[in-house]
Amino acid sequence: MKRIAILGSTGSIGVNALDVISKIGGGFSVVALSGDSNSELLIRQARAWKPKIVSIGNELLAGKVNRAVPKGTKVVCGGIGLREIATRSDVDMVLFAVSGTACLIPLLDAVKNRKEIALANKEALVSAGPVVTALARKNDVRIIPIDSEHSAIFQCIYGRPEYVSKIYLTGSGGPLLNVSAKRFDKLPVGFILKHPRWKMGRKITVDSATMMNKGLEIIEAKYLFGIDEKKIEVLIHPEAVVHSMVEFSDASVIAQLAVPDMRLPIEYALTFPGRSKAIVRKVDFSKAGALTFRKPDVKKFPCLRLAREAAASGGTALAVLCAADEGAVKHFLERRIKFSDIPGVIEKVMSRHKNARKEISVEDVLNADSWAKEETDILCYR
Q: Among 65, 106, 176, 227, which residue's CB has the most CB atoms within a 10 Å radius?
């Protein structure tokens, strides 16, 4: 019986993870759940799964949750609650679906305590990749990615990392792929939040529209798989059937193909190194039609360039990139800046940052994150 903690159970990844566990049958026990402010859903999940502990991010909702969860379920809150869950002795695997850098400290706690890690959060690995990966190596902890692209790469590389010569990260192109940049600011927010292939949270959907999502994935792949970012290429693949490809030293290429359904990489992470029964629709290749690939337009989507620049700089530039993006997207969704302002805000914050280019610590990352968020607020409130 694998004992699971899901941090971020009320988000799209967390909801899908519980759906996967319910469908693949026995072998799993849900020990812990956490949500940010969606107390109603967290309460329903707690009643259905009867975990030993739940955490609510909004401390003002702790009393409400405590009164409603099953008897015997402990209620904790905030960052302290996430850390308590990540270090419990009765948890074997922690699935991280919490967004933003709030995931970083609980992730490090889980690695220190040698938990299995299923990672859907981008920001922690992007901001503090060297710190996280070094600690994982020290504690012999494998980090299994849940991003569809990184799950695909993981599956293609598994067992032969020394022969990798290139990684192809595929992406559908998001909701603005075929929209002129001149029209970006004339579009309603609802259009930008309607992804053509995936149902995701608001922040990651905006990142998909700016293509910062692919930029963050370049950095994530760099640290997950130990490969220079220059060897990672982004390809636009609107059909979203090929989830990524790996080229090896002999010029052969291995790809992972499936229907676009987040439950598949979640299922793979939960059951690794085995595989379970299929719970998603299979690809019908006789009806799939053409599979097309092309390079992204970096001029139209400058966030890709900004991400590569941060990846090349390293150090705390990566935390600044993440924090500035998080802040700029928040201000866009709150209607303080235009969509086209997002990359400009990020670039201005990055230009003001003094990168020491040295080995970074967790404290360095958190300080850079805090500084960049303040700088972003200053720019966006003007």
A: 106
